[in-house]
Amino acid sequence: LGWGRLRSLLSPQEKKIFTVHGPYPTIRRLLRARGWVERKLPFKSRQLKQQSGDQTTQQLEKRAGGGGDKQGEALPNSPAGAQPSLAITEPLHHPWPRDKKNKGEREEKDKNEDTEQCSEDSDDIHDLMSFLVQDQLPNFFWTIRLTSIDRDLLPRIEVVNRFPRLSALCTKEGLCQSLQNLPWFEQVDLNTFFPRCYRLGFMGEQEAFIEDFRLTAARSLLKLALQKVGGRLVETEQPPKSNMPGDHVSHPVPSTARPRSPLYPQLVEEALEVCEQHLGVLGHQDIDRNTPSPCRTCIAWDRFLQGYYRVAHEGSRLVLSREQREQCQDVLRRLEGQLPQLSIEGNLNVWILKPSAKSRGRGKAGGSMEHTHPHRGGISPSPCCPGIVCKTRLEEVLGLARSCTGSSARVCEWVVQKYVERPLTIFDTKFDIRQWFLVTDWKPLTIWFYRDCYLRFCSRPFSLCHLEPARHLCNVSIQKRYKTLQPDPRVPRDKIWSNTQFQAHLARLGRADAWQRVIVPGMKAAILNAVRCARDNVGSRKGSFELFGADFLIGKDFQPWLLEINSCPTMSPSAVVTRRLCTNVQRDTLRVVLDRKDNPTCSIGAFELLYREAAVSSCLSVGLKLEVTGCSLKNP
């Protein structure tokens, strides 16, 4: 770059100065290739400090042997020649050890980010160019956290890669609440793409969950009853023998070591009665009822659940008459037409609990999925607010939620969601899909869908006999703890597949059409519905954009189920596939948010426009008076 080119980059007509906060070497490289100049953040200070014009001039002369004319925008209301401070409120770069030991997951995350960014910075021409623009405000800021930018400076930065206030979309509690508003936007049943979810911190939703758990137990009992033939259990999944520590059987198979007391004979009849009552509620037969739901009062639920636990988890036997068997089949067939999620339910009634504001399977102390016996409480990985856990008993779910009360209750608010007991597996291994999408505006809403995505595998074969993270949590941050485990030799050792590899696998199964006809349309619809529901509670800022990562699970019928949406998804490559795809999605994001401004017909890579809302002008002008004035009528 010559001095003339530098002056042009700093001119108001073509100002191209950017700042990157976080481990984004690809963004830095792509912007430099476009001719942008980086204003680097300092390594050792928590905040960019202002310097006088004399200090800046002296340092320029020392580094460049002279200086050029200062051009571009300086921060208003600053002393003459002073540098605009970005007022970084958190530690950014620390190439030398601190005096005190880092504590907590955020500090550890910052340390990793700082190490990665420091390794990519070098004392070359870019350092000099960065030094020359230290008194300039960047007009493009790519950051891992929006809080790293001073609130007063944020409006003066033209383009930022983050939106404020995303909790309505990107926390588990917020997404659960936002999607309840779906009927206001689309006549779509929420239960067709989002597993049933409840916020246990709200009494109304907790009561709804209790009723849902009981009804699911009744349906599960009918399924179990149909698996019994002549009073004997049909061959079921056996827990694999394992010497791995912490491998506790969550649902042991029946044992004949000692006789058990017989079940009370009305168990199946009560399950049938409950399901018939539920069918009546689904058919709106109770629309004029003023009493509590019959599903809550028609049987003694505590006794019923204890009997169900014995059948589902202890292997107690059920004896059905031919008439009862036909009734079970008929009721389940009618329920299937009313309940879209019956296909993802198994017969063990597994529910998954998640701390509402955590990501990557973490809890307050970085806990992970609990290994528990169905008849014992187990030991949580954290005494308060462990990470994601699976439970099969109602009292366990409620007990865990109540354990996080008091002053920190809002920090560890629990959501409970129906676990997908019948997922599609590859080589008997569970996987999920990380799907990117880009929002470039909220008003009017504009969403871009990325055609490429990747699959994340677990480290051990899927089994409901063991509820351990290695089998059930697909997060890369969780599975990296199990690098030495290999579920199947056909699963890649890095446990990542591209969508093209998945499509090839579907073709081998004879379902090559499932990707384009079922999975992709389902993911697009789920993303659009979620974003539209959350938009009114998200901070909108012109010039901002954000790349999101949605996580989907695929059912046995190839239907995608939305699990959560992540803001600022990781771009750190964990495998060969992600190294390529993460680079591509960052490149294409810059094409959409930068290149299209100058050339609307330019290539945008694998992005496609998913939704663009028609602009609607406001009907009311600011300051419009709606007061009605008048006078009383006088009697003649």
Short note summarizing the structure:
Helix content is 33%, strand content 14%. It is an alpha+beta fold.
Any overview of this molecule?
Its main location: cytoplasm. It catalyses: L-glutamyl-[protein] + glycine + ATP = glycyl-L-glutamyl-[protein] + ADP + phosphate + H(+). Residues 48-59 have a biased composition (Polar residues). Keywords: ATP-binding, Cell projection, Cilium, Cytoplasm, Cytoskeleton, Flagellum, Ligase, Nucleotide-binding. Residues 91-114 have a biased composition (Basic and acidic residues). By secondary structure, the protein is α+β, with helices and mostly antiparallel strands. The protein has 3 domains: 3-41 and 123-160, no CATH class; 166-195 and 423-612, ATP-grasp fold, B domain (D-amino Acid Aminotransferase, Chain A, domain 1, 2-Layer Sandwich); 197-228 and 261-360 and 386-418, no CATH class. 33% of the residues lie in helices and 14% in strands. It contains 18 helices and 17 strands. The strands form 4 sheets. Strands 11, 12, 13, 14, 15, 16 and 17 form a 7-stranded antiparallel beta sheet that branches. A 4-stranded parallel beta sheet has the order 2-1-3-4, with helices on both faces. Helix 2 (25-33) links the parallel strand 1 (17-21) and strand 2. Helix 8 (203-226) packs across helix 11, helix 8 crosses helix 12 and helix 9 (267-282) packs parallel to helix 12. The longest helix has 24 residues, at 203-226. The protein starts with a helix and ends in a 24-residue tail after the last strand.
